[in-house]
């Protein structure tokens, strides 16, 4: 009798395999980091073969460490770093190039050329997205245009494209020996190639980008049986697929229109459930697919995407050697009362929501001789909270509904200093659930629903529990004063790259 559901959570910096029971509790987990490759300024790559190896390692690691018989697992779901683009040979399973990561800005020329006719929002009505380096479509085009011989192979259907979900599922279900080539609506909606209404690849978009349909995966629901696993999970249905942020929305049980969550990871991503009709943003947010369960109607979201939040703490750790472990940032930040009047705008790969300026670059402004390492650490944390406030403001304007509380998840939500400042700068309560790793949980939920391990989304709501709540404690006048300073600091990063 199956007692558990498994989830592969393939993120920007690491991969983990998590096993959950019927109550949504974590039973087992294993995690491994993979290499970040920076060939040139603004370029970010991963080795897809390393990612697949890590995926196999953590599946075997979790099963072994927690002595779990794979037969006890009802299904496995996948969640993934979105927009990260892999193109590989169908016959050999070998990538034709490294994976181009979502943060990579090399496609800015492609995006600018496409924007000459009709502007940055040229395709927004159709695909919900502005022309930006973030999305997969321009990355596929870059590979087809720059890697010799790949375009010819793509036209013949000899190479396949996938975001990381597609790459993992293809390998997991057999790879060259009958691997299933699929994606789900949430991941497909991040390519700039999927039509928001038809939930399928849009012929006009493929033509504009010069991408052959033969290389694209089939678009499926987020909860459906795609095939059976091979290897350590032999025979287990692979039945859930959600981009990481949509998976977190699902794991946070934001199933009603107006419910929202914010995930604090490498970047920050706030999603608001808008129901079964797409809502077009007038304030720099993305219109994206939330999820689709089997043959039920698809659910849409508004999303505010912030490129650099947790990655800024990693940068202080790895590039500037401020501390040995990311968690130490809080000790530094707590050693000072405030940021000493400085602001740190981490536009390392341009600015995402609500600005969409790929030519912005990072800046620390307001420096004086008074400033220490502690102030910089604090300003780095505060940058996450300010960027979240900008997105929340845009969401309130677009939806016409003022959020009354924010559900939060991801690695940074254990930083109490940040969470308190977040509540202060938003002016609403911030709520952490008992299972903060809601991304993997969401993928497990989708897979479990597909095979009947959970009967309906109402069963999942019963699993959600509150761990901690932070109430705003800052007076409104001070809140607006420091936020005005942030808005001014952001303008200093604009148009840096000629």
Furnish the topology, listing elements before pairings:
Elements (H helix, E strand, L loop, with lengths): L3 E7 L3 E7 L5 E8 L11 E2 L1 H18 L7 E8 L4 E5 L9 E2 L7 H8 L8 H4 L8 H11 L3 H7 L2 E5 H9 L9 E3 H4 L14 H7 L8 E3 L2 E6 L8 E7 H8 L8 E5 L3 E8 L10 E6 L7 E8 L3 H9 L10 H6 L8 E3 L17 E3 L7 H27 L6 E4 L6 H11 L3 E4 L4 H13 L6 H5 L4 E5 L5 H16 L7
Parallel strand pairs: 1-5, 5-12, 9-10, 13-19, 19-20
Antiparallel strand pairs: 1-2, 2-3, 4-7, 6-8, 11-12, 13-14, 14-16, 15-16, 17-18, 20-21
End-to-end separation in angstroms reads: 61 Å
Helix content: 25-40%
Low-confidence stretches: none
| Spatial shape | globular
Radius of gyration: 21 Å
Helix-and-strand structural type: alpha/beta
Would you mind describing this structure in some detail?
The protein has 498 residues and is of the alpha/beta class. It is 33% helix and 22% strand. The chain has helices at residues 48-65, 108-115, 124-127, 136-146, 150-156, 164-172, 185-188, 203-209, 244-251, 310-318, 329-334, 373-399, 416-426, 438-450, 457-461, 476-491, and strands at residues 4-10, 14-20, 26-33, 45-46, 73-80, 85-89, 99-100, 159-163, 182-184, 218-220, 223-228, 237-243, 260-264, 268-275, 286-291, 299-306, 343-345, 363-365, 406-409, 430-433, 466-470. The strands form six sheets. A seven-stranded mixed β-sheet has the order 15-16-14-13-19-20-21. Strands 3-2-1-5-12-11 form a six-stranded mixed β-sheet, with helices on both faces. A two-stranded antiparallel ribbon has the order 4-7. Strand 11 (223-228) and strand 12 form a beta hairpin. Helix 9 (244-251) packs across helix 14 (438-450), helix 10 runs antiparallel to helix 12 (373-399) and helix 12 (373-399) packs across helix 13 (416-426). The protein is globular. The model has no long low-confidence stretch (mean pLDDT 94).
